[in-house]
Amino acid sequence: MDGLSYFTEKIVRDPLQFYCYIFKEVLRKWGNTFVSNSLRLDQIYSLLLKKGSVTVEELSDSFHVTPTTIRRDLLVLEERKLIYRSRGSASLRDAADTSKDILRAEKIRIAKKAAQFVEPDMALSLDSGSTNRFLAEELLCDERFRYEELNIVTYSLRTALTTSQKFNVSIPGGAVFTAQDAMLGLEVENFYKKINVDVAFVGSTGVRDCSGPTVSYPVQLPVKQAAASCGARRIVLLDSQKFIRRGVYVICEWQNIDTLVTIQTPENEEQLEKIAKCGTNIVLA
């Protein structure tokens, strides 16, 4: 009996047993390739529980899937607040203190580079967010600027308190949103529509595969848009983590952003090239 006749007879006699046999053979040979997303997520998390941290390359080799697939898996785990992603690797949130220190160092570098765009007697708009707060601290310590030599507008309460120690500071009225460290609402939006500044520094939730910097909270969107629009020049400040995240709403298109100050990593090189093609000047800290 030839091979074809043998398998045909098997199907006729007991199709269920035959298909079970085929399925087992497929799993034996290509099992890792067909591991479900849910199972792979569980296995990745179990591995992190044992090792504390792991690279994308290691996971890609272990599960025989592409780095892109692994990055998507890690994004899911991060959104569940189980892990922390950073520069081609992942770590448990409890073991992420070093990564947080790296991000802090990045933001300080970005703030120092951004301060180079500021000159005496300028009017500035500073966004909410930690990188803009680092910029505020950098300006406060910058010996180029004497007392009351900068005019700063911000809807961030912490930034306002910091910069008011040395500079002229204006804040809009509105509702206080403590979690966002911001004054938000229609009054804030209208306030920004009536002013003009030399430079508007803009922060973002993330920019992964987006047409511009984004924000996740709808109540923040009109305020961020108005704050960015009041600047004769718009400068976006992004740490490396913002390239693996994105918000829901686009604040403005990259074509309308003059400069992006950021940190280059292997993971964001391609995105930086795309942004540069939109006419945005990329400045690396």
Strand order of the largest sheet: 6-5-4-9-11-13-14
- CATH fold-type name of the largest domain: Rossmann fold
Proportion of strand residues: 15-25%
Q: What is the count of distinct domains?
A: 2
State the total count of DSSP E strands: 14
> What Rg, in angstroms, do the CA atoms define?
25 Å
Based on secondary structure, the structural category is: alpha/beta
Distance between the termini: 73 Å
Your description of this structure?
The chain is of the alpha/beta class and 285 residues long. It folds into 2 domains: 3-95, Winged helix-like DNA-binding domain superfamily/Winged helix DNA-binding domain (Arc Repressor Mutant, subunit A), CATH 1.10.10; 100-284, Rossmann fold (3-Layer(aba) Sandwich), CATH 3.40.50. Helices cover 45% and strands 19% of the residues. It has 11 helices and 14 strands. The chain has helices spanning 3-13, 15-30, 37-51, 56-63, 67-79, 97-115, 130-141, 157-163, 186-193, 221-229, 269-277, and strands at residues 53-55, 83-86, 89-92, 123-126, 151-154, 168-170, 175-177, 182-184, 197-202, 214-215, 231-238, 249-250, 259-262, 281-284. The strands form 4 sheets. Strands 6-5-4-9-11-13-14 form a 7-stranded parallel sheet, sandwiched between helices. The chain has a 3-stranded antiparallel sheet with strand order 1-3-2. A two-stranded antiparallel ribbon has the order 7-8. Strand 7 (175-177) and strand 8 form a beta hairpin. Helix 3 (37-51) crosses helix 5, helix 7 (130-141) packs parallel to helix 8 (157-163) and helix 9 runs parallel beside helix 10. It is elongated, with a radius of gyration of 25 Å.
